[in-house]
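Worked Example 4.2. Consider the chain below.
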Amino acid sequence: MTQPFPAPESVILAVQACLLDGSWALYDHDRLDRFEKTLADRFASLNALVTSSGTLALEWALVAVGVVSGSNVVLAAYDYPGNFLTVHALKAHPHLVDVDPATGQMDPQSLKNALNAIPVSAVVVSHLHGGMADIAEITAICREKKVPVVEDCCQCPGATFQGKLLGTWGDAGVISFGGGKPIGCGRGGAMLTNNSLVAQRARMQSLRGTRLATLSNMQLAALEPQLANLAKTMQITAIKARQLLDIFQNASAFKPITAKDGEPGYYRLGLVAQDRSTRETIIERGRLLGLPVDPGFRSLQMGRAKTRFSTLGTLSGAEECGKKMITLSGSVFLSDESGFENIKNACTVWASGC
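Applying the procedure from the previous section yields the following structure tokens:
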């Protein structure tokens, strides 16, 4: 439940300029090329490929690193369901590994067990809900087995782990500009890579005489000032997030996800209910206070035929997250000073009442 929020003045002026100069209705490959160059520079990548969604960026990234029909692709069993469906769209086979039940992030040992047991063509690693997977350990495990890594950074553009930008640890990274993301225009995404061969293979997916499934000038106009201001936006968000995390540490019914060794992003802030039976009550209380809260993802193995995926052992961590995870929309961080004070007060009442 991402709440609507007004565009900042810089975005309004940029979109108005696009309307007034007539470029809103034109193809403009030069503008797209400039934006991709700026995006690559901002995310410390040699290449950026803009697409119509983060999901399509993931699909092109998987093809570019070598996933074909019948390939095994590892992903966490607690993850955005579109990632699972993207693997199926490529006629590849998802192999699910477990997560840390306290954070919802991929468990490196479960990943290692999978790579020791089956041939794998790629690993998809997501960073979710204000947390971060241990991408240093995960990429080290995958390098030993010579398995490509694609990072899903759709919830955390600009976040860093051990001083290095997420999305640059593996062979490719994907970000999203849709759904109220920290930098967004309603729809869109991009693939990032420092591997020239991966970049070329992905770009071939986008060419049909002209560029396929890219963004309009209006969308680029909305994104350009947001990209320029991303560092400042993240700094302000981090300050506000720490204030809410301090409040939530005192709650008895749920505990917040916290990230170590880096600066996370906050499209959503994750909270783990202490008792799975109380999650719906906690969410209802939050909504009565006007807070944009929702359950997290359903764990991917639940409700699906076992022929649609494989796994080793149990997925108890993912099952716990699927039944206990609560998310607070990052739109709360876009409130002005007085609005955020109201949010903090509501969160204080929510935490103390749970």
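The chain is about 40% helix and 20% strand. The chain has a mean pLDDT of 96. Compare this with Example 4.1 before moving on.
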